[in-house]
Structure formats: structure tokens, C-alpha cells
Amino acid sequence: MTTTESAPAYTGLFWAKADRQDHRRIHLLEHHLADVGACFEALLAQPIIRRRLARTAGLDHLDDATAARLAVFAALHDIGKVNVGFQARIWRKADVPAGQRTPHRTGHTEDLVPVLTGQDDVTAAWFFEALGWVDEVLTWDDKGGVTACALFVAALSHHGEPLNLHDSRSANSGVWREFGKLDPRRCVARIGKLVRQWFPAAFDSGGPPLPCAPAFQHMFLGLCNWADWIGSDEDWFPYCDRPDDSYIATARERAKRAVKSTGLNLSDQRNDFADVPGFGELFDIPGAPTPNAIQETAQRTPLEQPLVIIESETGSGKTEAALWRFAKMYERGLVDGLYFALPTRAAAVQLHRRVTSFISNLLSGDYQPEPVLAVPGYVRAGDFAGRHLPDYKVLWDDHPNDATRNRRWAAESAKRFLAAQIAVGTVDQAMLGALQVKNAHMRAACLARNLLVVDEVHASDTYMSVVLEQLLDAHIGAGGYALLMSATLGSAARLRWLFPLRRESELPHLPLDDAINTAYPAVTTRGDAGEAVVPAGENDQRKHVQITAQPEMHEFASVAQRALTAARAGAKVLVVRNTVDYAIETQEAIEALAGPADAGRLFTVRGKRTLHHGRFAAGDRRLLDDEVERQLGKGQPGKERPPGGHIVVGTQTLEQSLDIDADLLITDLCPVDVLLQRIGRLHRHKRNDRPAGYRTPACIVLTPPDNDLSPLLKSGQNANGLGPHGGVYGSLTILEATRRLIAEYSEWRIPEMNRELVERATHPAAMCDIAREMGDEWIVHANKVKAEGFANSTEGQHAIIKRDRTFLDENIAFPGKEVQIRTRLGDDRIDVTLDPPQPSPFDSSQTIDTLALRMDWLPPGKEPESVAPAPADGGFEFTIGKHRCRYDRRGLRRL
Predict the structure, then answer these.
(1) pLDDT digits (tens, 9 = 90+) for 812-871
(2) Longest CA span, the chain
């Protein structure tokens, strides 16, 4: 590594990268362009990545001439840095030639717009002549150069969002003139000459015209953005400030090494792979198990199907079905990896452990990947955790060697999560690849090579459904594969997932009776004339649940007494409330009624009574998850389930991913598909030790007073998340349909009745009938829900990337509403540092450094980076905006 003796203004050298501490230490622009061009070339050398790019153009393969031309555009991504305004960004007064003023400091993308559009016609004339643009590059397509220009603009958009060519800023031609020894025109001519040497196949005559499909341009931007991320890493591309006409050979060697060390080049891994282990070995199941009905049906479904939906009752092994299918797809070379998307952070953290174990059984040896936990705020790869240091570095707790650390590249930044070969994370991380936010194109390009699995798709609202539909449409359009899972989908929702972004009039329609009679459990794919549903048969998970409604939603003492009575009889009791506030009040009521003999029946972590919800610090949440599974889990050698009664109170966090098995379920009223999900935690496993009186699964559903939901039409007071003002489950029509099903059927036969239950509480015809029967206010409410759904759908359409538009379109630019888009998506929590860190209320030897706060808890304006907590009884308190917050054994809450 060398360092210039003089500032670049004197040497005539153009820089692209500079050291943050020592600006005289630079990486030459021409070398950085070679680095990124070589990285792009190395990415396209990966078979599946190349196939995905080709598919966006409607091609089966991408020819070498086109690949080389794309590499030219990728290499030119930073050509805008050939302006003295950008070069001056690292200068000090002493660096400026005598008698001259420091140029106005500028950027390198937006400031190129006047040149691209001809507003600065003088610069444009020599700029494109120096590149050899008109005589050569514009002949690469059959659209008069329009496609080439669009791809060039896409490359210039490598910072993560489309370049706005219709920016009204004035031309600043002064930054393109000579300054000292810096001569932009001469530098552009040199770069034009170099790219011909680097990628000669691009300039050979002949070859097919560049693909003109807009989706191809969007995928190209994603790959270019990805290549720039890799090519900008100094660990792989050390700075070099001396011109070297042969540097491309060094860049190519480094690019190949970077792509391989980050786990993108899988050639060695695939050569080392023998075949998929047996089902029992793959999932650490003792004996000689055989897959159940849904797992076998998912496996038999042709692997080439781009979109598969698995519907089966909770606890039937859908996760194993998805992972087994992935293993077979990897074996066939259809996908490189896996992104498993969960609805919540907690569910992702829990499943990450299982996937890590699965991968260790599937891919062993030197090339075994470490699954990344794709949850912001976490730095985790496999069994190892890291923490962020200054200058974007990460300290890993196992102090890995360079090779291991390089393989964890994707885990070290949320923007890179989807570049991991194997990742488990939240669904919003995947959906950010479809929204108008920075680096969205890179996320989508990274995801394209992997199988996308989305769990609990029924949980999406209208806005999120539109976003996920766009993601699926782009993913499958690029030749990718997706698998969706649900305990039960209504027919209307199922058809929307199968045919994303279609108008309602274009979708197939199932009458209510036909929808009810559709097979379940089942695996569904796209058919020639609609959906193709393959019955799976029963999974040996049959149970008959005794279900009753009790109008005790607000009666915390009554709920507490029910739970204690059952626990005293030896039952494991799960109490699921819709909101954190109601869960805390329920927990406090149980503690108030509990006597000394009940001490071992209440849920505790490290000796502290507590409950389970989403407002705990990450480290404490892991303690909670472990203890819930120990108390209510299946039980296994070394992790035996303790005898006797026990009560666990929580929120929706208890219904997803945790493998827990209760004897009695007490739950708030919720939509029927969510209720079935919660019931999946009731008698989940076959056991012989259930207490008398609880050997038949029983579910108590807490409803509003008098079982009447009508007051919730007008007020959100004490709504517990229900109704238009409750904020959790807004459609009272669906809730009323669910309440009626509980009243009509005292026994729910699962899975036999699942399809009927869901259709009668979600099918549009059934909803219309209930609204008409309930009267005018309910009709108005139902229409408002529809209108809100339409508005949410429209909002989602405005927020998604317009992949049908080229990069020359005036409407291609992002609107600059990233914070609003992320918040609306549900990515609405920010990590706030505790200064000083505080001890965990459960384990004083562990400290809490950060807490995730909801955006609506924060004061308007700039987001705080830290808060100053003060110790309080059993925890700590801090002020944020006008609110006092407390964190203790009950989690985080506002006082």
C-alpha cells in the first residue's frame, strides 16, 4: 500500500475512496472502477445469479457479449467522480494550488445529471466523445441507444435508488473544467480506453442487442449495487494510489476471492455435497421416522413449481416440509440458498436455532454456511454473536480467523442480510426489496438466487399484502422460487397469493360452498385455469377441542381465577391476550390471587415472576423463550418438561414459532385464522401425563360484556385491540363471524373443520351476510373496512418499486419517504442505546445496551440515539420525549 506525497490536486490523480482519518491515503478512481467491474463480472460467473438476470429479460441464458457490456456499465458506475467539485471534498486549504479558490464541493451522481440530459451541453459533448459513446456503446441495442442509456443510468443509481434525470437543478459546468493538474476530460478518455482493455468482448462487433425489458434494468441495478458493496470493502480491495494499466488482473483476482470468501461462489460447497440425508437425520429425529402427509405431499410437488402454498394445521410440521423441499431444490441446483421469513422478530429468533441445526445436518464440513439471523439489532451467524464497533467493524464473540469472518459478511449489516446463503429473519426484511427505499434493488437481487419461504401469510394486512405480492411477482419473474405457509388461508387470500398484482376481475372466484369443500390439508400451486389443489390427507394431528366463549375480556380477576384453578389441578395453562397492557394486568391479577402454594405454578425466569411479550430486550427475550419452552415444551432428554401445573401469560408472541404444548388455552377473541394458530399450542403433542379434567383439549375465548361487539363500533376504550379503534384486529365483521362459530360449535374438530371455519369467517359472501343481518351501523363499518383496505392497497401501490418503468422514465425516482414507508411496513422500531447500560432484571451479570422503541413513542423530529436510564426498583426508568418509561420484569412500558 502506498501514500501520495502530495495532494491529488497537485498530482493530477482522481480518487474514488479516501481514508476517513488520513485523506491523503486514497484509492484511485480507475482502480475502484476496475474493482467493481470485476466484482460484477464475478457475480455473473455464478450460474444461478446469471440465470436470474437472464430471466428478467425473458431469456434462458445470458450471452458473453451482453455480460461484458453490462460489466462496462457497472465499471462506469462512479464516472461522475471525475469532477473537481467531488475531488475537492478531501482537500484542505494547503492542498489548493496557489491563486485558486477551492471548487464548490459536489457529489458524483446528481451532479452528473446536467451532463446526461444535455443541460450542460459543452461538457456533454466532450464527455461522451471521450468515452467513445456515440460510435460504439449506442450501437449495442436496437432502440437507437435508448436501452444503453437506461442501463448506464441504472449503473449510476448504484447508491441505492434511481437517479432522477428530471432534477431541476442548474448545471454547474465549472466542476468539469481543469483545476490545477486535474483534467476531467483527460481522465474520462483514459477510463474509456481502460474499459475497452478490461472488457474487450463488449466492443466486438455483432452480438445480440441489449435486452430492453425494464425488469432487466432493475435487476442489473441490484447486481451493480451488490458489486459496489463488495468492491468498496478495503479488506478485499486495499487502496492503491499509483496508476497501473494492468491493475484489472489484480482486481479480478481480488473479486474472485471476495465472492468466494463471502459464500457467493458455491462451487466447492456443491462439489463437496453428496446427497440429502434421510428425513430423521436431517431433523435430528430418533429412530426411523417417516414424513407425515403434508411433508410427503410438499416433497412430491414438482420442484420446478415457482410458487407453492402449504396449508396445514399448526404443529403438523410445515416448517420441516419447507426445509426438506429446500434441501431437494438445492440438490437439484434450482436455488443457492434460503431466506425464511417470519412475521415477528421473536419468531425469527426462535426459528433461527432450528434452521442452524438443520443446516449443520444438510451441509457439513469446511463449506458449511452459518445461517444469518436477519433481524435488525442482532449480529448473529449460526451459534455466534457479534457487536458493532466504530468504522463499521464487528467484534465476534468467538474471535474467528479471517476466512470465517469473511463468511459472516452478510450478517454484519442489515442492508446485506439477504446476501446470506442461509438466513432467517422477519418478512419486512424481504419486503424492503419491493419498496422505494435505499438498496431495495440490491436486496431483491440477493434474494433472487434463494428459495423465499414466508410463514403465516394470513397475518398480513392489505398494505403488506400488496407489498408482498410485488415482491413475489418480481422474485418469480426473475426465475426465483417461493413457498408460502399458513395454518389455513381463505380462498380469496389464497388466490391473491397465487396470482399477485392481478385485478379482482382477473382473479378466479370460488363460491362459498366450493371454498368450504376445498381439500385441507393441501399443497396448492398455479394451474392452467386457476389454482391446482393437491389434498395431503391427515397428519395424525387430529384433535377435538372443547371451545366456549366467556364475556370476561375485562374481568382480570375472573381470568386469573380460571388459570389458577386449572394450574392447581396440574394443568399447563396458556393465557394469550391481544395487547401488552391486558397481558400485564392479567399477570398482576394472577400474582395478587396466588398463594404461597402457587409459587411454583407461576412463570418465572431466574426466580423473577414475569410474562411473555415483544417488549423485552433481546437478551432477556432469549431467556424468556428458553424458559417457556422448558416449562411448556415437548420435553426431551436433558430438557425434561417439569411436572405439575403452570401458567404462562403473554401476547401474540406465544402463538408463533415456539414449540409449546398447553393443557388449557385461555385467549382473547381474535380472527378465526389467528385463533386456530393459538389453538395449535393446545395439546400440540401426544402425551400420557395430562391431568384429569384436561385430557380433552379445551379453549376458553374471552369476549366483550354480553358477548356484544357492537359497542366497539364507536369506541376504542378498553377495546383490547378489537374493532376500528382497537388497533390490532380492525374488522368487527370477522370477529363477529368468529364469535358465532364458537357459539354454534362447542367442539371444533381439527383439522377436519379448519376450511369451513376460515371460509365462514373470511369469505366475502359470508361477511356481507353478517353485516346485513347486524344492521345499518355494521354495513357502514364493513364498507369502511373495505374502503380502508382499498386505501391501504393504493398506498402500497404507491410505495412499491415500479419495475415496469425504465430508468429514463420521469416517474422512476423514489419520493424520498423512506421513514414513512418503513414505519408503515412495520419496520417501526429503532434501537436506542442505554447510556449507561443497565443490568437485566433477570440476571444482573448480563447488561442491556440497547432497547427497541416504537416510532410512535419517540418525540417528533430527530430520532434520539441514546437515553439516560436511572435505576428503579427491580429495573430502570428513562424519559423519552414527554413520556416516562420503565423496564423491569414486566418488560418495557410507558408509565
Answers:
(1) 888 877 777 776 676 556 778 898 999 999 999 989 988 888 777 777 666 677 889 999
(2) 95
